[in-house]
Amino acid sequence: MRNFLKKLATLFGVGLSPKAPGTVATVATIPLVFLLNWAGPIPYMIVTFLLLPVGILAAEIYEQDKGSHDSQEIVIDEVVGFLITMVWLPLTWQAILIGFVLFRLLDITKPLFVGYLDKKIQGGLGVMVDDVAAGMVASVIMQLLFTHTNWLGSQILVG
């Protein structure tokens, strides 16, 4: 189980990418967003909710074995953060693009309380919490765009 969680922390090796592992992991999460969106809002929310404590545990175990905090190889936090960003949104290329850029921007720059959380909370929870916060901020912005503009385009029909 420990080995599985360490692999999950790196999204089965995606986090070992030599360049921009967080960005690569966010791109790798796009098919999961499509799959969960196709499954419906309840399965989407359940999987996202369950990935949070599992991700915290995976990050904690990875950190213990590596002896460092928030290694760039740990990318399960980007997966959960991007899933949060894209919840309850239409599957359009515009939504995916805007959500991707917005989440990565917030995750990288860590504005406001996102940066505070990143600095103050240690362990697996500390790895996950800033990306969850970035995903929540991005999700609120995306929901505002969805309900108040036509920037997110027309729904892609899946299935």
From TrEMBL:
<dbReference type="InterPro" id="IPR036681">
    <property type="entry name" value="PgpA-like_sf"/>
</dbReference>
<feature type="transmembrane region" description="Helical">
    <location>
        <begin position="79"/>
        <end position="103"/>
    </location>
</feature>
<feature type="transmembrane region" description="Helical">
    <location>
        <begin position="123"/>
        <end position="146"/>
    </location>
</feature>
<dbReference type="Pfam" id="PF04608">
    <property type="entry name" value="PgpA"/>
</dbReference>
<feature type="domain" description="YutG/PgpA">
    <location>
        <begin position="8"/>
        <end position="145"/>
    </location>
</feature>
<keyword id="KW-0472">Membrane</keyword>
<dbReference type="InterPro" id="IPR026037">
    <property type="entry name" value="PgpA"/>
</dbReference>
<dbReference type="InterPro" id="IPR007686">
    <property type="entry name" value="YutG/PgpA"/>
</dbReference>
<keyword id="KW-0812">Transmembrane</keyword>
<keyword id="KW-1133">Transmembrane helix</keyword>
<protein>
    <submittedName>
        <fullName>Phosphatidylglycerophosphatase A</fullName>
    </submittedName>
</protein>
<feature type="transmembrane region" description="Helical">
    <location>
        <begin position="41"/>
        <end position="59"/>
    </location>
</feature>
